[in-house]
Amino acid sequence: MDIFLLLASLFIFVLILFVGVVIILPLIRGAPFLPTHRTTVEAMIKLADIQPGQKAADIGSGEGRIVIALARVGAEAHGYEINPLLVWWSRYKIRKAGLENSAFIHWRSFWWKNFSDYNVITVFGISYIMKGLEKKFKKELHPH
Fold first, then answer.
1. Which residues contact 115 (CB under 8 A, 6 or more apart)?
2. Among 39, 51, 98, 144, which residue has the fewest nearby CB atoms (within 10 Å)?
3. What does the pLDDT look like over 11-29, one tens digit per residue?
């Protein structure tokens, strides 16, 4: 009976940890995950007018569909995501697409990343982060 209690306690602990890291932490530290519709991704890629070899970033990259699309048109594409489950899923999708040499997902907050060496930055974010991003980008980015 004691081993059953120990295993049940361990299971509950792991479940609480999982919920905290995968669901609650991203909600506290960032926006909830909402996948970008395929037609929106296509429009973003078209508007970005990516030239082969340019360096592009997707902020809050979710499950990586924009990063993959950027890499497919010739960019060195980097995604920044704080949800570890989405980071894992994105990396899996990148390997499946054969884009390991041009698409990269970073498990970190984009607030601490300097984006001055990127040619293109995409963000499909929610309104409450946009004012902060505007200030950040005005400091880091140069007009083209």
1. 57, 121, 136, 137, 140, 141
2. 144
3. 787 777 676 666 555 555 5
For position 123, what pLDDT does the model report? Answer: 87
Please tell me the distance from the alpha carbon of residue 112 to that of residue 92, in angstroms, as a whole number.
25
SS3 readout for 56-101: EEEECCCCCHHHHHHHHCCCEEEEEECCHHHHHHHHHHHHHHCCCC
Task: Identify the segments of the chain with pLDDT beneath 50.
Answer: none
- In sequence order, the 6+-apart residues with CB closer than 8 A to the CB of 79 are 57, 58, 61, 62, 64, 66, 67, 90, 103, 104, 105, 106
CA–CA distances in Å: residue 120 to residues 51, 63, 92, 94, 123: 10, 19, 24, 19, 10
C-alpha closest to that of 21 among 79, 65, 87: 87
The whole-model pTM stands at 0.76
How far are the Cα atoms of 66, 79, 99 from residue 35, in angstroms, in the given order?
A: 10, 14, 20
| Contact call for residues 124 and 60 (beta carbons, < 8 A) | yes
Confidence at residue 69, expressed as pLDDT on a 0 to 100 scale = 96
Q: Looking at residue 10, what is its pLDDT? A: 80
